[in-house]
TrEMBL record:
Name of the coding gene: tatC2
Family, per entry: Belongs to the TatC family.
Species this chain originates from: Microbacterium hydrocarbonoxydans
InterPro entries per the UniProt record, alphabetical: TatC
HAMAP family, per database record: TatC
Protein name: Sec-independent protein translocase protein TatC
Amino acid sequence: MTLAAHLVELRKRLIIAVIGLAVGMVVAFFVTDQVIWYITGPIRILDAERGTETPFAQLVFSAVSSGFDLRMRIALAIGMLLSAPIWLWQVWAFIMPGLTRKEIRYTLGFVGAAIPLFFAGGYVAVLVAPHVIEIMSTFVPEGGVNYFDAGQYYDFMFKFVLVVGVSFVLPVFLVALNVAGVMSGKAILKGWRIAILIACLFAAITTPAADIFSMFLLAGILVVLYFAATVVSLLFDRRRAKREKAAGLLPEVS
């Protein structure tokens, strides 16, 4: 294809992806009430636990358009998830003609592993986030109130889910580096001490210091994923060595 043909193809794929996203946002807009009710569960729990006449924890909309802005941002996030099969396919259909059969197989494998890992990380984040909010609220002094700005509260929830979700996908990139020949399985395994340290630091940063359970849960999952990626990389190295030996590229070991 010529450059002009590529640009035409790209424009067509983008238009289809944008239409899919718009439809997903429209559908998602009608469930924003349920989403807001779910993510504000910790706020209601905090307010009920204090049991005072004056509300202790409340979601605050500080601007005229805050309610609409919050719903649009939620609709965008959910719309991207709902329309993911459409825009992911458009991206795949655009780049697939330029890939070899082996590259297609590896790409499908990596994407097939990355997507469920990301959603698993997001699910763990959703489970951990309420504990983070509850722990941090304990530092509010007696007589104080904990009013959460709607936009900032959603930013915290969204970024927390995104960061934890992406951290779960990092082992897939380690395997990708191994397949590309950048890092061997032994090299990945050699850095296990640093990997455990990074996992613990990441868990400590993303969870409050007082919530030890959430910190160890997150750190433990990341460490398990790291060693799983190491085992897969070692298996790939072993299979690659067998192929090279059969092809006469490696000397026989007596």
